[in-house]
Write a structure and sequence with these properties.
Layout: H1 3-17, E1 20-21, H2 22-29, H3 33-45, E2 49-52, E3 55-58, H4 68-72, H5 76-88, E4 95-98, H6 102-110, E5 117-121, H7 124-130, E6 136-140, E7 144-146, E8 151-153, H8 155-161, E9 166-171, E10 175-177, E11 181-184, H9 187-198, E12 200-206, E13 218-221, E14 228-231, H10 237-245, E15 249-252
Parallel strand pairs: 4-5, 4-9, 5-6, 9-12, 12-14, 14-15
Antiparallel strand pairs: 1-3, 2-3, 7-8, 10-11, 11-13
Helix pairs in contact: 1-3, 2-3, 5-6, 6-7, 8-9
Length: 253
């Protein structure tokens, strides 16, 4: 069994049972306890588990929805590599609708400041950076601001997007699965993500492999609504094939 497959089994077990312990995992998986500890460390670095004495707890038990600061601290190198590939998907002189979240911020960091773009975003943090880029014409979407994510959400935000025709939308997600599509914990965030997807000619999803198989309360798109999914190389080949069969191109960093 590959490390990625083993770690996915560990994560599923942790989410199903609320916690896992090293000794039981080693016995069930037929590996040494040190191998399990390395797997738990890897999952913790990805932001999926929190290590505790003798085992680990899924992060969902610790915070209902990770804050933007929490998510920005995880997978920094991976997010930067993914962001570089997302930037490659943006046409010259494009109008871009940019979602909130840590993946979107990574894309902003990888954009050349003098690149000529029109950017429409609901992210306060992204807008704060983009406002200093001389090549960017920036539009900030209004609405109620969620303190957890620093994103404008709600009816005002969605209505502002109804008159927009964008070349590309860059979207993030909390969860992604072939059966359930793309999901997020907050209804207002889901509504804005759906509106962003609806107004764009092309949709690029930035989602690391830890999001795969993780379903949240509110659906906002099917995989077939997405043109390109940019993810990391930890995504198993068979899962990537299932996602491609649903419609999107899959690009790994």
């Amino acid at each position: 069994m590959y490390a990625t497959e083993r770690q996915q089994r560990i994560l599923r077990k942790a989410r199903a049972e609320g916690r896992v312990d090293v000794a039981s995992l080693a016995q069930n998986l037929g590996v040494a306890t040190e191998t399990v500890r390395r797997d738990l460390t890897s999952l913790e670095r990805r932001g999926s588990l929190r290590r505790v004495h003798g085992g680990a707890i899924p992060v969902e038990r610790l915070e209902v929805e990770p804050s933007l600061a929490t998510r920005s601290g995880h997978l920094t190198g991976t997010k930067r590599r993914m962001a570089a590939l997302v930037v490659d998907q943006i046409p010259a002189d494009a109008t871009v609708v940019l979602d909130s979240g840590s993946s979107a911020l990574a894309v902003v960091d990888m954009l050349p400041p003098d690149r000529q773009l029109v950017v429409i975003t609901n992210s306060i943090a992204a807008a704060n950076v983009l406002s200093t880029y001389p090549g960017v014409t920036l539009y900030m979407l209004g609405g109620r601001v969620r303190g957890l994510t620093g994103a404008a959400v709600g009816e005002w935000t969605g209505e502002a997007l109804t008159g927009v025709v964008a070349d590309v939308a860059i979207i993030g997600t909390n969860g992604m699965s072939v059966n359930r599509g793309l999901t997020t914990p907050d209804q207002a965030e889901a509504q804005v993500k759906s509106a962003m997807i609806a107004c764009a000619r092309r949709v690029v999803l930035a989602a690391d492999s830890s999001k795969v198989g993780d379903d949240h309360l509110h659906w906002f798109a099917d995989l077939g609504d997405i043109d390109v999914i940019v993810t990391d190389t930890d995504l198993p080949d068979d899962v990537a094939d299932e996602i491609r069969a649903a419609g999107p191109q899959v690009v790994t960093s």
